[in-house]
Amino acid sequence: MILAHFRIFFRKMTSFSTASLTPVGVRGMKVLDREKFLRHYKVPVLKVNAENLSKIISLCKKYFLKLENFKPVQSLVEDKEEYYTKCIYFNPEKVSTFTNLFDIDHEVFTQQGITENNFDIKEIQLKYENWTFDSIFKAVLPENEEIVSSFSQIGHIIHLNLRDHLLDYRYLIGQVLLDKIKTCKTVVNKSNIIDNTYRNFSMEILAGDEDFLVTVKENNCKFQFDFSKVYWNPRLGKEHERILNFIKSTDVLFDVFCGVGPFAVPAAKRKAKVFANDLNPDSYHWLKHNAKNNKVKEEYFKPYNQDGKDFICHVFKHYIIDLCSGKEKVSKEAKIHITMNLPAMAVEFLKYFNGLIEDKEILDKLNNEIVVYTYCFAVGEEPASVAKKMVIDNIGCDVSNSILDVFHVRNVSPKKEMMRVTFKLTKEVLLGIKNDLELSEPPEKKVCVEV
Q: Which of 91, 252, 271, 359 has its CA 20 to 30 Å from the CA of residue 367?
């Protein structure tokens, strides 16, 4: 009996070798040819009867052959010579012999009559439909080079930022993603960096429909916008949530670079008083649309289409003056929050707070704390120190003692981090504080902004 089992085991081992299940013969393909992904592979299986399948299947799950559009447990084709009715397919990288299954509860196998006789090798046919986009990219794109490791999805649009060595493959990449991601209808590649006034960028459609109107959900709000004309980064959703958790219904928010409203709309929906601004007329359009679409009441929400400097020097300044004079009312516990999410240049607008209000008697009546959340790109080995220095240098005075937090938001590229510096905007800064290096300059230089 032992000798018979050994012969079966040896016969099966000599007919099977553990080859990796990956597409072959497609390296360098630039025009997608789905037929070339058709291959036959030999994989290990365990044949069982339907009556003991339920007790065996839970023990074998971690060994399953998991592929797209492939069932790891299948019925055997009716064959009068075949005693078993069900077949469990295993990943050949995990199982090559029956002994690989010994770490499963062997007692259960014995109770169910499972032996080497149940173990076999079967040939399967795999097609393009069975491979994930990741497996296809690894098989097609250049070896020893970075492949498509990540992308953003905004509604039905997949947004790529392809490296130069992948540009020749961009249409194949786009078509594969369109095929494999069911919620995707359009694939685009960013064709230049975001360096224009309105923070949008030109895009090339790689696959799918020329449809940029998207709908996304974030922080219990629905946002709609034309992705080709405004800025939206789905990787910032958690950061939006963090800041919103700081804002209470009794508070006030000034969103200097609000985009389509990821800070402003949820805050106003929670009944904080919001002043939201963006220079991009398309962002301003969708900001108002999203506020209305999310049923934000007008008493909590005021939109503006201004330059950040004008918004600070007029809207924010006049609000503070009105608050100090009693024209605006908030509770004593209320905080005034200022979000400045324009990391490429937000710090450059900090100087407009320094010396913004000239009348000390008015400002003496300010009893509410003002907190600024400013974002920046920090390049260097110590991004927190770089970000802190950027804030101090641009506001024009040492606000180190007022900094509450220097927070890492996300990695942008090697040695380039998106940081958030949170600090209190004090009365002293609003009245005007000079750096020691500027003491020799004319007195009128104390006021940063002419209003």
A: 271
